[in-house]
Amino acid sequence: MSQTVIKVESLGKSYLLRHQQGAAYSTFRESLTEVFRRKEGGSSLETFWALKDVSFDVKQGDRIGIIGRNGAGKSTLLKMLSRIVVPTKGRITIDGRVASLLEVGTGFHPELSGRENIFLNGAILGMSRNEIRSKFDEIVAFAEVDKFLDTPVKRYSSGMYVRLAFAVAAHLEPEILIVDEVLAVGDAEFQKKCLGKMKDVSGQGRTVLFVSHNMAAIQNLCDTAIFLQQGQIQMSGEAPKVVAAYLRSASESAAINIADRTDRSGNQVLKFQSVALQDESGKALTSFQCGKKVVMSIRFKNNSGSPLRNLNIAVGIDDEYGQRVGFMSNDLTDQVFNAEPAQERVEISIPKFPFRQGIYTFSLYAKVNGEVADWVREAGTIDVEAGDFYGTGKLPPDGQGQFLFDHSFSIK
To answer: What's the CA gap between 121 and 170, in Å, rounded?
Structure first.
C-alpha cells in the first residue's frame, strides 16, 4: 500500500479586506488627510476566507488534478503546499522534496543566465552540483533554449521562461511535483511534452498535483481530482466524475432568458423565451466539453392561440470573430413540425459537439407557414471546453481547423 506523502487537515487561509469610505476621486490634500482619518476608524475591515476547512490525503505516485473556477482557491492551496503562504488555520504534513511551478519564472533570478538559473534552482531544491550536472543536458534539450543558455533570463519570452522553469522542476527528480496553470503560456506542442513528462514522473512513483482549466488535460493526466468552489472542497474522487460535476456546477444560472429582448424581428406569432444547454442526463450546463452529447432546449410561446403549422426553427453558430461556423435547422433534416398550443419547447440533440475549445455565439430563427415569426441575433453564448473528441487521450494541435469530425483511415 502506498504511503501518504501529503496530509492536509482542516486547512484555512483568511485575508483582511479593507473597505475605505469616501469618494472614489479626491484631491492631493484629501488623500493626505485620509492617512490620519484611517487611524480614527474611517474604514471597515472584512475577513475573507480564500480556503476554509480543506482536508485531503495524497498517496505516493498519485496524479491529482485540482479544478475550479477563478477565485475558487486553487492557487492559494498550491502556494501553501509549496510553503510560500502560511495557513491561517489547520496543518499540512509533507514527506518528500517538493518542486513547484506556480508562476512564470518562479525562483529565477532575472539577471542570471539560463545556465546559472538551472544550477540556482537545483540548489534551492536541495540537489548537489554533481546531481544537477548529470541532468543538465536533458534539461536544456527538453526546454529547447540551448541557443540562449548564456543569455540573462530577463530577456526570455514568457514561453521560454516556462519551458526552462518546467524542465528544471521536472528533471531534478523531486518526490512531489506541483504545477499551476502556467503551462497555458507555452505552445500546444510543448504543453503535450509537459503532460507526457508529468506522466513519466508519476510512473516513476513520484507524485503530481496539477491545476488546469483544460479539462481534457486533467482527464488525460490525472487519476483523481479535487473540485474547489468558494474555498471549499465541493467534490473529490475519480477524475471523470469530478470533471463532470465541475462542468455542471453553475446549472442554476445556465438558462439564457431572451423573453424580454426587444431587438428582434418577426410577427411574433411564435416568440422565443429561453435557451438551456443540457447534458445527456438532462442537467443544465454553462459549459461543456468538445465531443460530448449536448441538448439545446429552446422554450417558445405560441401567441396565436391555435396550432403552428409548418414550423421551422434554425440555430446559427458564430465564432468569436462573427464568422458563421455552424447551422442547424429542422428543415434541413426534413422534420416538419406542427406545434399544438400546449407545446412550448423544442430540443436539438447533438450527439458529439464538434466545435473546439472557445466561446461561440448563437442566433435563433423561426418561421411559421413560410413567414418569419421570430429572429433573435446573438441570443446567447456557448462555452466549449477542450475535450477528448476521439477517445484516444490526444488533442489536435492548435490552428488546425475550427471543428472536429468522426473519421477513420485505411490502406488498401
So the answer is: 11
Please report which residue ranges of 82-175 form alpha helices under DSSP H: 114-124, 129-143, 158-171
Please tell me the distance from the alpha carbon of residue 167 to that of residue 76, in angstroms, as a whole number.
23
**Which run of H or of E encompasses 302?**
strand 294-302
C-alpha cell at 243: 470533471
Q: CA dist 36 to 20, 26, 33, 42, 406, Å?
A: 13, 15, 6, 9, 69
Q: Are 50 and 13 in contact (CB under 8 A)?
A: yes
Q: How far apart are CA 274 and CA 345, in angstroms?
A: 9
Domains of the chain and CATH, by start: 4-10+52-247 (3.40.50.300), 251-385 (2.70.50.60)
Provide the 10 A C-beta neighbour count for residue 274. Answer: 16
Q: Which residues make Cβ contacts (< 8 Å) with residue 343, sequence separation at least 6?
A: 302
Alpha carbon dihedral 15, 8, 220, 279, in 10-degree steps, equals -70
d(CA 163, CA 144): 8
**pTM, whole model, 2 decimals?**
0.58
pLDDT per residue as tens digits for the range 9-26: 999 999 887 655 554 445
Q: Pick the closest to residue 178 from 159, 206, 203 (CA basis).
A: 206
- The tens digit of pLDDT for each residue in 170-182 reads 787 778 888 886 6
